[in-house]
Amino acid sequence: MSLRACLGTARSLQAITRRTFPSSRTIQPRYFPRTLSTSNHLRNATPPPINPGKPVEPVPVIVKVKRVGKWRTFLQILGRVTLVTILTTGGLIYYMAWKDRHPGDQIPHDPSKKTIVVLGSGWAAISMLKSLDTQEYNVIVISPRNYFLFTPLLPSVPVGTVDPRSIIQPIRYITRHKARRVLVYEGEALAVDPEGKTVTFQDTSPIRGEGGPSTISYDYLIYAVGAETQTFGIPGAKENSCFLKELWDAEQLRSKTMDCIESAAFPGQSDSEVDRLLHMVVVGGGPTGVELAGELHDFVVDDLMRWYPELAQRVRITLIEALPNVLPMFSKQLIAYTEKTFKQNQIDILTRTMVKEIKPKAVVVKDPSGATVDIPFGLLVWAGGNTLRPITKDLVAKLGANQTNKRGLTVDDHMVVLGSNGAIYSFGDCTATSYAPTAQVAAQQGTYVGRLFNQMAEKARLEALVEELKREKADLSEIDAASKKLLKASKFKPFHYSHQGSLAYIGSDKAVADLPFLNGNFSSGGVFTFLFWRSAYMSTLFSLRNRSLVAIDWVKVSIFGRDVSRD
User: Where are the alpha helices (DSSP H) in 199-246?
Assistant: First the structure.
């Protein structure tokens, strides 16, 4: 191909390119690759001049922006708020847990301060400790157990709804967060000397040191030892029944419950023996007995039906009450609702029935008609009333004519034990007051006494201040201001109980609540009341640790069920 032909072809391609691809920049002509026929000519050839032509204006590009919908915007905002809430809540929980696990330094005991000895670690004693300002006193706690037990959830322990460790709080978790060091001794008080102001106690643990009983002095004694289970002198009540007052009672009851079930599953048992072993009797129609019966029913329906289907249908639960109805402190509507629910759950209620004797395999009762009946049982739980401990009876005898009530210690409106010369304060189940022996009453009494001691310390401080101002002949206005504060601190208000309502779980995820509302009461029962029951107890637990553990237990049971293994 000649050089002229090649150049002509190039010009034609350039014109075609301009028409096809309009642009503001000029497209350079493409030269063919070097070949043997054109290499010599193209080597010395000069490219033809390029005519840039008229530049073409760029075409504007219109981009359509799609609007985000309101629903999508709401979800984005909700997601961000949820993320911030989760992170904030998690950080707050971590900080609170870290703070609980790392108590700060404490002030040592001051010999110039008065000594308060606290006997007990129940609702009354622990509530008093929490409200007491230990900077003003030297405090010593003596208790046979080194923990506080949240008793309202104790009926949930025997069937495994709640783990035993979830409802206890070590005493030192509370005392180590006080301003001044609080001494804690695990021991049982043996005697109180109101004249010499001393307490004698000893170690009752299985492993003991060389030291024997010890005696300490006090300026003030907080007597909150509680009470023990009342059996009314019924033969066989202590030997052949289980109690439900302490943590070890619940653990023993759990072991015996599974023992009855496994024994009933053992080969060679007669039908009558299987029925006896699977008959669970609860004596006492108060909140403890009713809640335990409800928990046993849930255990049978939710767990034994799955793992012991051949036995679960034969399990019977009977509640025995000497009064005309169960839950006598609740309204009539809630009593009727509870009895109706128990009937639906096939829980037998025997009211107006008196227990006469408890044999190893049968309970002898007197029914409303006056006939004596033997009721076979495999497990019997005694959820009766309270009676005085031996040390309380001994203290009543020592105080003499000032103590005449056999139900407990007599106290005045400020919780001071009569005949103790203002040195002994008592409250809770060991006292004889017009209030019911409940955790709610004991907690309010303990909080009141703790604040009372704080006010007494403030009064003593103001008295010393007034004396100092008078001695230094200070300005009359300063003395008058301090005197007014002293007068206000000297007015000790008597204890006033504020009833916050009554709650009880009755099984099948139902509960009853009798709550004060305006000038009357608000009664409620059912599933929503059960949720309120749980939330109320969750908020009443003493620490974040307890709340977290109980919540985890409830979640575990709802997902995996209760444990049916035997200890």
Answer: none
